[in-house]
Design brief:
The protein has 6 helices and 9 strands, in the order ββββαααβαββαββα. By secondary structure, the protein is α+β, with helices and mostly antiparallel strands. A hairpin with a 4-residue loop joins strand 8 and strand 9. Belongs to the RNase PH family.
Length: about 240
């Protein structure tokens, strides 16, 4: 039995509210169970120096957790003068995941920065950030197309992510914190809407796993991402 009482293949409740901030070109508040993330997308008519003059666009991301997004207060990373290794790793993951669904030639020489701020954490914050980040990105690109700044849609396909793992010896979908903290194996699966894999992060936390179990987790991830993509499309329709 899962702590939440969910079936092994059952996602937490998913909701995506769009246009939640006044100034960002694209924004949404994504809630996956008790994990809530504010995602905003900002347009800039510039690109990093390493691609300047190439005609290619760029999508990047920043990620952070508010001090009381967790059970006890965390210090703001700004007070320490640098980002932690976990933060840097996650925001790089978000950026490269979103870029995998973008035609950077069609985007043109401009940058879109997706900011993901965790308001409340209960497991799967990086997956929620990627999923919500794509919605914010979609809304920002819609504005570019509406103004005629670009004529070809640069978003090839949605991008979404979900966690899967082995909890109490069973393959389960969409781990919350209670499961994540006790899972023998924990994984994050990032896929495009067309089913192609972008990245899989798997680690044996307290148990090893075999090929059959890996296949079970992959099947769960594909089903979970399909549900998330449906929610994304409904949110931006």
């Amino acid at each position: 039995m899962r702590p939440s009482g969910r079936d092994l293949s059952e996602m937490r409740a998913v909701s995506i509210e769009t246009n939640v901030t006044k100034h960002a070109e694209g924004s949404c508040l994504i809630k996956i169970g008790d994990t809530h993330v504010l995602c905003t997308a900002s347009l800039e008519d510039r690109v990093p120096p390493f691609i300047k003059g190439s005609g290619l666009g760029w999508v990047t991301a920043e990620y952070g957790m508010l001090p009381r997004s967790t059970g006890s207060r965390m210090r703001r990373e700004a007070t320490t003068g640098k980002q932690g290794g976990r933060t840097v790793e996650i925001q790089r993951l978000i950026g490269r995941s979103l870029r995998a669904g973008v035609d950077r030639v069609a985007l043109g020489e401009r940058q879109i920065t997706v900011d993901c701020d965790v308001l409340q954490a209960d497991g799967g914050t990086r997956c929620a950030s990627i999923t919500g980040g794509w919605v914010a990105l979609r809304l920002a690109v819609n504005k570019l197309m509406k103004t005629g700044a670009i004529v070809t849609d640069p978003l090839i396909t949605p991008v979404a992510a979900v966690s899967c793992g082995l909890y109490a010896g069973q393959a389960v979908l969409d781990l919350d914190y209670a499961e994540d903290s006790e899972a023998g194996v924990d994984g994050n699966f990032i896929l495009r809407g067309d089913g192609r894999l972008i990245e899989v992060q798997m680690s044996a936390e307290g148990a090893t796993f075999d090929r059959k179990q890996m296949d079970q987790l992959m099947d769960l991830a594909e089903a979970g991402v399909a549900q998330l993509v449906a929610a994304q499309k409904a949110a931006v329709a």
